[in-house]
Task: inverse folding
């Protein structure tokens, strides 16, 4: 497989955005229920939105760009849909969401995308990218990707190798032949694991090594053929789950039980590391575009703008005699005095303080939170839902207070609780209330009481957001005390 590039050809491209990661190294801002790809950590758009925009910008005279294929966790589907909707206010495309009922790493995820892209006999070039990276030089990134797409259209497997600017022990590496072809690509010799500092320094001095970006470009048929050759067990298991798929608007769901049986494996281990020396021609295109995978808070400091003292700040921050710090204030004033090289991240329910050097170890903190079954490892105090959001502003023995926002035209599920009663006070907008057999509306400064066990629903019939203060009382106030009877978002 793999032929000389014909620059007069028109390549048909489908962007594939993989966003199933949890981003635990960026806790407490990134959490299982709201991972880093959905955060704005560098620029106004979220990392996920930046990834989608970069791929849709690849269109030129030789490249046609189709709608994106987004592979994400089932629980994040409405977050993805909302962030795509924000992008589509300025762009015209309709993307497909492939929903994973459980994480099985990136090889099965890409296989879902390849099978979807192959529908109706199509065989586009897939540009496969993680959703949680940043790129400083968009023009250089676009140029490298266009070069890669044209090479992949002829059957080659292309990966982007990031040109190192320092010895780095946190990335996997690619060894390549420094003799480049006329299309700017070079032969890929092998993938290598994260090195120790001495090895990384030697590779940096010698050259011929690049960081593995995790960005791959290849035709759908080539991926499926390579997976079938190197990991036929994964190929067969994904095919079985795919055959049981269900489609609901933009959502495509493989069979949940069958998908859970798929072996978990990354793209690199399953296929890419086996391609060099095989019948699958694999080449590397250099990428020198200010790429960063934001693998730790120190990386977030690197990609953000600094003041004269080297501090990178977001939110309500007061500094005095502080240098080279990252300070992120989400919900209140954070004052930093006379310290250097720290990471300070404040959220409404947790504060992280670390040296920048040790910020990689945040992952171990999150593991401790998980072992102790602390809710802070999974959700923020403010939780987003397809109908809006709620913020748990106070909690005590036998009571909880939430601030709820319902978007215009949206509705919570028709539901009931076995262990709690609820009292709703409208502070803005108009609420339509279903309580048992009765349906009525209340407005600002009016309230409604929902007895324990009563079927109920809260809706916003108006054109402005509805804001409600909810007071829960009862013996058990967990979020799992919800029996959904009907729901606009297929969560029953």
Result:
């Amino acid at each position: 497989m793999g032929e000389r590039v014909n620059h007069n050809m028109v390549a048909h491209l489908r962007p594939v955005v993989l966003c199933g990661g949890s981003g635990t190294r960026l806790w407490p801002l990134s959490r299982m229920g709201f991972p880093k790809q959905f955060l704005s950590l560098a620029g106004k758009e979220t990392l996920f939105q930046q990834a989608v925009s970069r791929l849709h910008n690849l269109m030129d005279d030789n490249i046609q760009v189709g709608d994106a294929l987004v592979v994400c966790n089932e629980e994040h589907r409405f977050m993805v849909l909302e962030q795509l909707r924000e992008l589509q206010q300025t762009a015209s495309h309709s993307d497909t969401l492939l929903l994973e009922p459980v994480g099985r790493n990136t090889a099965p995820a890409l296989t879902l995308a390849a099978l979807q892209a192959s529908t109706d006999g199509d065989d586009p070039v897939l540009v496969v990218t993680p959703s949680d990276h940043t790129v400083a030089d968009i023009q250089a990134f676009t140029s490298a990707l266009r070069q890669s797409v044209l090479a992949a259209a002829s059957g080659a497997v292309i990966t982007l190798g990031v040109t190192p600017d320092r010895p780095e022990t946190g990335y996997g590496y690619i060894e390549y032949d420094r003799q480049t072809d006329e299309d700017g690509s070079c032969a890929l010799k092998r993938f290598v694991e994260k090195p120790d500092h001495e090895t990384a320094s030697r590779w940096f001095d010698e050259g011929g090594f690049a960081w593995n970006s995790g960005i791959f470009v290849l035709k759908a048929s080539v991926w499926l053929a390579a997976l079938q050759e190197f990991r036929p067990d994964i190929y067969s298991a994904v095919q079985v789950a795919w055959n049981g798929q269900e489609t609901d608007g933009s959502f495509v769901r493989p069979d949940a039980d069958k998908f859970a049986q798929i072996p978990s494996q990354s793209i690199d281990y399953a296929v890419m590391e086996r391609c060099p020396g095989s019948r699958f021609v694999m080449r590397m295109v250099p990428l020198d575009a200010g790429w960063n995978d934001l693998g730790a808070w120190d990386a977030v400091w690197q990609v953000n703008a600094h003041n004269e003292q080297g501090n990178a700040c977001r939110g309500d921050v007061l500094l005095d005699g502080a240098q080279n710090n990252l300070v992120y204030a989400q919900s209140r004033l954070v004052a930093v005095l006379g310290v250097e090289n720290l990471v300070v991240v404040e959220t409404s329910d947790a504060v992280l303080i670390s040296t920048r050097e040790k910020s990689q170890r945040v992952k171990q903190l999150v593991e401790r939170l998980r072992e102790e079954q602390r809710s802070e490892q999974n959700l923020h105090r403010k939780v987003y839902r397809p109908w809006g959001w709620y913020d748990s502003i106070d909690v005590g023995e036998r009571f909880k207070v939430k601030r709820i926002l319902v978007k215009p035209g949206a509705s919570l599920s028709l539901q009931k609780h076995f262990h709690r009663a609820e009292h709703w006070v409208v502070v803005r907008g108009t609420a339509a209330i279903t309580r048992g057999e009765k349906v009525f509306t209340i407005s600002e400064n009016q309230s409604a009481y929902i007895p324990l066990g009563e079927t109920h629903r809260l809706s916003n019939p108006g054109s402005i957001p509805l804001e409600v203060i909810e007071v829960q009382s009862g013996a058990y106030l967990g979020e799992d005390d919800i029996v959904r009877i009907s729901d606009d978002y297929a969560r029953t």
Notes: DSSP finds eleven helices and 31 strands in the chain. The chain has three domains: 11-292, 300-366, 382-486. The CA atoms of residues 8 and 62 lie 7 Å apart. The longest strand covers residues 209-219.
